[in-house]
Amino acid sequence: MPVISLDDDGRWWALTTPASTYVINVEIDPRTGEAAPLQRYWGPALSLQAAQQMAGARRHTTSFSRPVEIEELLPVDGGCRWGVPSLQAAFGQVRSLELRLVGVSPCAEAAADRLDIALEDRHFPLEVVLSARAWHDSDVIERWVTVRRRTDADGTPVTVTRLDSGSWFLPDATGYRYSGVFGAWAEEFQLQRAPLPIGELTFTSRQGITGHQANPWIMIDPGDTTEEHGPVWGIALAWSGSWRLTATHRPEGGAAVSAGFGHEGVRWTLAPGQEITTPPVLGLYTGGGFGAASRAWHDHARRHILPTPQEERPVLYNSWEATTFDVTEAGQLALAKIAASLGVELFVVDDGWFGTRDDDTRSLGDWWPHRERFPDGLRGLFDGIRELGMKAGLWVEPEMVNADSELYQAHPEWILRMDHRRNDEKRSQLVLNFARPEVRDWALDWLDRLVTELDLDYLKWDMNRPFTQAGWPEAGPAQDLLWIEHTRNVYRVMRTLRERHPRLRIESCAGGGGRVDFGIMRYTDEVWPSDNTDPRDRQTVHHGFSQIYPISTMSAWVPDSPNPNTGRATPLRYRFHVAMSGVLGIGGDLTTWSQEDLDQASRFIRAYKSVRRVIQQGRLHRLGGIPGQERSAVQYVLGDDVVVLIYNPYGNAKRGPRWLRLAGLDPDALYEVVDAGGPGKGPGLLEPGSRYHGSVLMSVGLRSAAWEPIGADYRSDMIVLRKLG
């Protein structure tokens, strides 16, 4: 059983996963009766007898601090606590919590076991429930918190100013190191790995979306963990709005990470009977290095988060880089005919199809076909796409409105706004307040009609700016709830669309990678990690993305050369091999490609289709040096099939290993080379049909033309192997 009681009083509990144990103790202060749920252990799996020994562990104390607070599952603002609070609440002028235990309740669920710890303030009408779930088939532990104002409350106002999903205590280590990602528009998911400083380290988004600057996850290791060896503790928040994640490293030792939605300054006022439930925060322990951590995150997402985890994602074409706002039926069909001839399976019409949308200053909110360009509507265009044998997709941006639109003229009160303050535009856009039920219902209505009338297979849901003047005057004291309800209503619309249209697939985009997280992935099939399609830059984006998110969700395009973002010229082969490391798409202007490039593109697409299930569903191993800067490779293993994509951006790459060692193979098996370089290959050093022992491939390695230390810039290979017998 994943949830086990360790004592007769119901104060000690162990949550077990296939490879880890998580021990909780509800400590009661004998003097005050105050309850403090503590995390006593999180690490490699323990036997029942070993877990019970945790009850005898003693902790360090000092006169001027309370080190034990770092072990609390939800350290509150109150009493002898001076660290980062996970829960802050005010009752009129009283800004301190004193919680007592109500009860602990285990329960069995279909694929997991759950533990609820119920607490209440000893005087004021606030109830707090800490919940934890241990899955039968995953090493991820899921936690969340519910706060509720009791209905028997008097007139004392109850306001919550901080509500995290939980705090996670990291076992003692001689040196903590953190891993996370930072970025900006067109430079998302840049991996950083550094010693965890003593004090507090905070990652956050105050933008109303997940954000480009950081992503809501962190990994902690003892300082010497490698890709394939050593312990890793990871924490990820499943939320697509504003968020905060703070890692605390205590001066006397010990570290913890608290994560939750919201940011500084918001106030959530609770009416009698009202409750707030946080999004899940997920924790994962592994002893197998960063690679094993990534693979465990990917497995959990496929089993318990993604809506269509086993589907093979189609090769798509997106028209944005080819046409921008110049969207016409003739122009789109001309691109579609070329795309179909290459083997593309899904054609997505991007921005510029609606209202009077001739540039980015107008018509957001007016979601009907452009009256001049499509006087007879869009049905002819999408019927034409389907006649070419492709599925049909469309770009939308439901949360935005232009001031120059019929919608804004009819409903100026629908935007985020504050009395006596200006309405700042960004990208000529204002943000619709999706927390308003009438805005949510309006969006669901036109999206449902659009999908139905055009028989759409795919929506690219974009969100191109952060919140400003995030107010809702009509909501009064409850207006800060919009920071929560906006995101949840986006989820509700997506979920309802999927229920009404089971064949519909959705992609999340927010100016590139501004809304990528385990929250949005519950309702979407793919995400767009960056507007930067330059292949060398995309390698670093893909590297950071893959740390916790599955490759089957990562959309990647083959762009034109020179690249429209960077002006950098790269070979078509390199562009394809980088895009093939995720869900392959084409984003260039196909009408300008030479016949030689089109022929080569067709061969690459066929090659990708032959291995895409391995790439999209296989277990990922990151090999070699820093992607985009040194010789590197990514390897995918699914059953007996192995695919290796090899990259060498610089011709004079003399440093690093001369042989590329593979990982995750059966050392006692023979592997046969099925393909040794793919279409358009140069003089490779492997030959199809040759055979190698798994132990040799992992301990010695293989060589390819792309891995050689001297040659042209931007060399790449795709090696395909199959296990024999």
UniProtKB/TrEMBL annotation:
Listed GO MF terms: alpha-galactosidase activity
GO annotation, biological process: carbohydrate catabolic process
Residues at the active site: D462 (nucleophile), D531 (proton donor)
PROSITE patterns associated with the record: ALPHA_GALACTOSIDASE (PS00512)
Entry EC no(s): 3.2.1.22
A Pfam family: Melibiase
Domain Glycosyl hydrolase family 36 C-terminal, first and last residues per copy: 632-721
Cross-referenced InterPro entries: Aldolase_TIM (IPR013785), Alpga-gal_N_sf (IPR038417), Alpha-glycosidase_related (IPR050985), GH (IPR017853), Glyco_hydro_27/36_CS (IPR000111), Glyco_hydro_36 (IPR002252), Glyco_hydro_36_C (IPR031705), Glyco_hydro_36_N (IPR031704)
Protein's UniProt name: Alpha-galactosidase
Organism listed in the record: Thermocatellispora tengchongensis
